[in-house]
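Morning F.,

Quick status update on the modeling queue. The single chain you submitted on Monday has been processed. Sequence for confirmation:
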Amino acid sequence: MMEDLYFRQIQAGPMANFVYLIGSNATREAAIVDPAWQVEDLVKLAEQDEMKITSILVTHTHADHVGGDMRGEYIEGVAELLELCKAKVYVHKAEADRFAVPESEIVKTDEHSSLTLGDVAIEFIHTPGHTPGSQCFKIADRLVSGDTLFIGSCGRTDLPGSNPEDMYISLTQKLMKLDEQTIVFPGHNYAPHATQSSIEQEKASNPFMRFPSKAAFLTAMGYPG
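Structure tokens below.
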């Protein structure tokens, strides 16, 4: 599969978002992750690589990841991309009803969802906490972690729909149990000197992955244990 894998990390927009292109070198099909910004440029980049975007993967439906009204200003996003590419939008079922895209274009995902492009298999991992429908995407030894896991930190849990208990479970019961050599590709470029990490590195140095109990985690996040 790794020989067939096409994978690009692109920073886009004023909030240091990462967008990902994931696809098959054999079939030239690609999925794009969280295309909220600079949509036409992203499509042109895929075309320059001779890739056709056929799927849109959504880690969660915050405006800086999918587009919409943010602080009174409309930003580019998934809806615009659908005007340029014939693609289906993969969004977790917990957030599909809040997504401003025609229902006919949406594929509602859950814990058992996956997507295959050529020999490239993409596994969907439901990781609520930052939002109810947050999900990560695992491709062989790579994890696109959205706003669940950052390099040295995790996503906020003080926003509408956030849940710190869910975040603790997602981090400790799902992501920490992945192979330690799994490479982590986050949803934002927040780390000063790195754009990727590994589960091993995060288990060793990320304070949000090192709490001995859920109560300790909740206390640190400002909630009663």
